[in-house]
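Why do we care about 3D structure at all? Because function follows from shape, and shape follows, mostly, from sequence. That is the central idea of this module. The next example makes it concrete: a single protein chain, its amino acid sequence, and then its structure expressed as C-alpha cells.
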Amino acid sequence: MSLPPPQALREAVLDQIHAHGWIASSSWLATVDSTNLAAKRALASTASLPALFVADEQTAGRGRGEHQWWSPAGCLMLTLALGNDGAPTDRSQWALLGLVCGVAVADTISQWIPPEQVQLKWPNDIYLGRQKLSGMLIESYSAPQAGWLIGIGLNVNIDWERAPAGLRDQATCISSSRCQALEPEIVLPTLLEKLETRIRQWQAGGEEWFDEWLHRCLLSGQVIRVKAAGQQIIGRCEGIDRSGRLLIRDELTVHALASAEILAWR
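And the structure:
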C-alpha cells in the first residue's frame, strides 16, 4: 500500500496527534535553524503546552556542548516544549528528564528493531552496536513560564551516500537496520505516545525508567575513558545510580559523575 503525498501525510499525522489529546499545539516546518530555537521563539510569544515543533531540515542542529548534528532528509527532528507545572515535587528528580526521555526513544525504536539491540549511551544517545541512531538535547527555559525543551534527532530513513564520510560508519538509521524503508511521519505518533507514557510516570515520581535504562546501558562492564572537571578518568563502567550519575570504578574508588564527556570505550 502506497503512502499519501508528504504534505497530506503530515497533516493526517498531526490530526491524529491532536486527536489523542496530549499535544496542545504543533507546527511542522520545512527548514529551520533548529527546532529548539524555533520553540524558543514561539514560546516568547504564545504557545499552548505541551507544544511540538518538527522540521524537515535543520541548518544549525546541535547536540550537547559544541557538537553539531547532521540533519538530512529522513531524520525525524523535533522539539517537545514541556512546562514544569506537572513536574515532580522533588526537584532533584528534574535532572533525570533526559534519561527518562532516552528510555522513551528506545521504546519507540524497539517497535521496529529487536529491543535487545537498542542500547542507551549515557547521557543522551541511542545506539545499535557501535553506531549512533539517535541523540537528544534537553534545555531549560524560564519565560514566559518555566519548563524544558526536549530536542530529539532520530535517524529513520537516511540516504547514507549523501552523508559526510566520517559519519557513514559511525551512524545508522531504522530503515538501514531493518532493510525496509520507514518514513519519519510514521514514527512520530509512536514516539510521542512513548514520551507521554514515560514523562507521566516521571511526573508522578515513578522510577519505572531506571531498571529499563540499566538493562539497555551500552557502557556497563566496558572500560571507558571520560573527561570530567578538567581531568580524565579511566575505569570500568558500573551503569548509573538513581540520581542519573555515571558510575566508573578505577583502582582506587567508584566515581559518580553528574556531568562528563565520554571519550572512548571498549
